[in-house]
Design goal:
About 55% of the residues lie in helices and about 0% in strands. By secondary structure, the chain is mostly helical. Strand 2 and strand 3 form a beta hairpin.
Length: about 375
C-alpha cells in the first residue's frame, strides 16, 4: 500500500462507517441513508437520535419508550449536581460539560460494554440539563426543574423559565437534527480513537467534548454572531467586511473542509432564522447577515456553513452566546455515541504514523563536554 502524507488528514479515508456520509459532490448529507433535509423537514430530533443509535427510524412504540427513558434521565444524581454547583460562574460552559461528563463516569461508571446503549441515552438526555443546572445556579429564581418534554423544549424551558414559543422550539429541534452527526469530523474521530483503546464510554465522550471546545471546530457561531451584531445596516456590513478582508482577517462561519460549494445544512437553518426574524420584527438583523453572505461569496468564493445562520437563529431564540457550542454538544452526543458503538463492534486500535521532520541521527555528547 502506498504511503500517504496529507496535513490534517485532508481527504484521507481513516475508517469505515455506516452512520453518515456526505455525497461525492459535497452537496448533501445523509444519516443512515436518509437525506438530512428530509429529516429536518419531517422528523423530531429524538427520531433522528434513535436512527443514529439504532440504524433505523423508530416505530411509534419505540419512540414513545425512547422519549420516556430520556425524560426519566433528566434527573441528575445528587453528587453530580453538587459538583456542578462548585464550578465558578466564569467557567466556560464547554468546560462545565466536559467536567460533568467526566464526573458522571465516576458516579455511574460503565461496568461493561453491555451498558453502552443505556449510557448513550443517559448522556443524550442530560447534556442540556447539566449545563443549565450550572448556568441557572447563578440566576436568581431561574427554572430548575426539567419538563418531561423533548430535548429542545427542555433546554428552552430551563433557559426561559416558561413554555417556549412553538417556532423557537421547532427551530432548535431542527438545529439539533442538523448538528447531530457529521462523519469523521475532529471530535467524532477523537471519540473513535479513545474508543479504539477500549476505554470507557464516558472517556470517549469527554474526549470529544474537549475537541469540540476548540474554536476551529465548535464556537464559530459565537464569532459569527459577534460579527453580525457589529453592524447596524447592510451598507455598514458591506463596508466593514470588505475592510476586514483587506486586513486578511479570518471570517468565522464560512467555508468548510468538505462542502466546497456550500453547506446544505446552512440553507435549512437559514430559512428558520428568517422565519424567526420575521416573527420577531428583526428582519434588519437578518438583512445584515445576508449582506455578509453575499460579500463573502463575491469577494472570497466562500459560503456560510451551518454555524453562520445558526448564530442568528439561536440569538433570536434568546439563547446567550456562551451557550451556543453546548447546543452543538447536546446534538452531537447522538452521533458520537453511534460512532463509539460502531468502533467497538469492529475494533482495531487507531494508531497512525507521523511524517518525521526532525534532525537526523545525532551522537550523544556528555554533559561536561557541551559548550
Amino acid at each position: 500500500m502506498a504511503e500517504t502524507k496529507q496535513a490534517g488528514l485532508a481527504g484521507i479515508i481513516a475508517g469505515r462507517s455506516a452512520i453518515s456520509t456526505v455525497d461525492p459532490e459535497g452537496t448533501g448529507l445523509f444519516y443512515r441513508g436518509y437525506d438530512v433535509a428530509d429529516l429536518a423537514a419531517q422528523a423530531s430530533f429524538e427520531e433522528v437520535a434513535w436512527l443514529l443509535l439504532n440504524g433505523d427510524l423508530p416505530t411509534v412504540t419505540q419512540l414513545a419508550g425512547f422519549n420516556l427513558r430520556l425524560q426519566t434521565n433528566y434527573a441528575l444524581p445528587v453528587g453530580l449536581k453538587q459538583i456542578l454547583m462548585l464550578l465558578p460562574q466564569q467557567s466556560h460552559p464547554m468546560d462545565v460539560l466536559r467536567t460533568a461528563c467526566s464526573a458522571s463516569g465516576c458516579i455511574e461508571p460503565e461496568q461493561s460494554f453491555a451498558e453502552q446503549q443505556q449510557i448513550a441515552e443517559r448522556l443524550l438526555a442530560r447534556m442540556a440539563v447539566m449545563v443549565m443546572c450550572w448556568f441557572n445556579s447563578y440566576r436568581p429564581n431561574a427554572e430548575r426543574r426539567a419538563p418531561r418534554r423533548g430535548l429542545a423544549s427542555c433546554f428552552l424551558t430551563l433557559l426561559q423559565g416558561h413554555e417556549p414559543e412553538a417556532l423557537e422550539m421547532r427551530t432548535l429541534d431542527v438545529a439539533l437534527i442538523l448538528y447531530a452527526e457529521h462523519e469523521f469530523n475532529a471530535s467524532t474521530f477523537n471519540a473513535r480513537v479513545a474508543a479504539s483503546t477500549l476505554s470507557d464510554f464516558y472517556s470517549a465522550i469527554t474526549s470529544a467534548i474537549g475537541t469540540l471546545r476548540g474554536p476551529l471546530h465548535g464556537g464559530a457561531n459565537e464569532a459569527a454572531l459577534d460579527l453580525i451584531l457589529s453592524f447596524d445596516s447592510p451598507l455598514a456590513a458591506e463596508k466593514g467586511l470588505k475592510a476586514a478582508l483587506e486586513r486578511k482577517e479570518k471570517i468565522m462561519g464560512f467555508g468548510h473542509r468538505v462542502y466546497q460549494q456550500g453547506d446544505p445544512r446552512s440553507l435549512i437553518i437559514k430559512q428558520w432564522a428568517y422565519e424567526l426574524a420575521r416573527q420577531k420584527a428583526q428582519l434588519p438583523l437578518f438583512a445584515v447577515a445576508e449582506c455578509i453572505e453575499t460579500v463573502m461569496a463575491t469577494e472570497k468564493g466562500l459560503f456560510p456553513n451551518l454555524d453562520f445562520y445558526s448564530a442568528v437563529a439561536f440569538h433570536l431564540c434568546g439563547i446567550p452566546k456562551r451557550l451556543f457550542t453546548p447546543i452543538f454538544v447536546m446534538a452531537r452526543v447522538a452521533g458520537w455515541s453511534a460512532h463509539i458503538m460502531e468502533q467497538r463492534a469492529d475494533n482495531k486500535l487507531i494508531r497512525p504514523m507521523a511524517d518525521y521532520i526532525g534532525p537526523d541521527h545525532r551522537d550523544y555528547v556528555p554533559l561536561s563536554e557541551r559548550a
